[in-house]
Amino acid sequence: MSNAVSSYTAQNLGAGQPELVAGTTRRIVGMCYLIVIPLLALFAAFPELILRVYTDEQSLIDGSVASLRVMLSSYLISVPAFIRFNVVSGTGNTRSALLLELATLSVYVAYTVWIVLFRHSDVALCWTTEHVYALVLLLLASLYLKKAHWQNRKI
What we know:
The protein is mainly α and 155 residues long. The chain contains seven helices and no strands. The protein has helices at residues 2-14, 20-45, 47-51, 58-90, 94-118, 123-126, 128-147. The longest helix has 33 residues, at 58-90. It is flat, with a radius of gyration of 18 Å. It starts with a helix and ends in an 8-residue tail after the last helix.
């Protein structure tokens, strides 16, 4: 759905209706949450069942539950982050999208090196790298959509 919002953004800009982008974005985030949140709740409620798809080894399953829950929680941030980033892409400003992605990846890699190599953190805590990636992407894409003059771009 995040890729679809890119097309909707380009369509709205091409039609001279940039004011529709924000509403379309909110609706798509809402639709994604309608799908994702029940799945997250189900997976969080029955993590052993989900993990059993990958292994029957009980000690591995027991050791993976915390990591699975941390990973699942990252989707709450990832949904709006990926959608907003694709709105930026839909504006046709590929240079800005590239810069947002590079900045996000720089923070992500730095955090990953710190949390894994320097802190030697537990695997579940290492999964917070996904939260950092999504949060930075969400913040930068939101900042672009609020401050940049993308509404008048010609697609």
